[in-house]
Specification:
Radius of gyration: 26 Å
Largest sheet: 3 strands, mixed
Number of strands: 3
Order of helices and strands: HHEEE
Helix content: 25-40%
Distance between the termini: 79 Å
Low-confidence stretches: none
Strand content: 5-15%
Length: 144
């Protein structure tokens, strides 16, 4: 009976299998991680939109049922909200700008926020995320 020698370390086959398994795990986890990252960005933007709307509602309540005008940032910061929050999506980087009817042309989606300051508009006093496309649930950013 021949005695088998005890090998030290791993052979080429074992190392190759381990590398293939690691690559497969990375290949499966990265898309899931990116999806979670996009979901968190979207959730943060929606939360920040709620905060902005609350600040505008507080302003409306304290100023005899009138909405802020084109000077919305000066009207709500820092009394009703500490700073303009960030709007971010997977397509556009973070932005704090609040564009108004007077400062935006043909409703460009530059990032940040869009505030309707035109008194004659049916949605006067409304603020929305100024982001292109749709949310992960298929909702238009313009309609949220």
């Amino acid at each position: 009976m021949k005695l088998l020698k005890n090998k030290k370390g791993f052979g080429l086959v074992e190392i190759s299998i381990a590398i293939v398994l690691i690559v497969l795990l990375i290949g499966v986890s990265i898309p899931k991680f990116m999806s979670l990252l996009n979901q968190s960005k979207e959730a943060q933007t929606k939360y920040n939109l709620i905060r902005l709307r609350s600040a505008i509602a507080a302003y409306y309540g304290e100023h005899k049922s009138t909405y802020p005008g084109a000077d919305i940032v000066e009207a709500i910061v820092p009394k009703y909200i500490e700073e303009v929050p960030i709007a971010v999506s997977g397509k556009i980087g973070p932005a704090r700008e609040i564009y108004t009817t007077a400062t935006i042309h043909s409703r460009e989606h530059k990032g940040g926020w869009y505030y309707v300051d035109d008194m004659h508009a049916p949605d006067f006093g409304t603020i929305r995320a100024n982001l292109p496309g749709k949310t992960l649930k298929g909702e238009e950013w313009d309609k949220i």
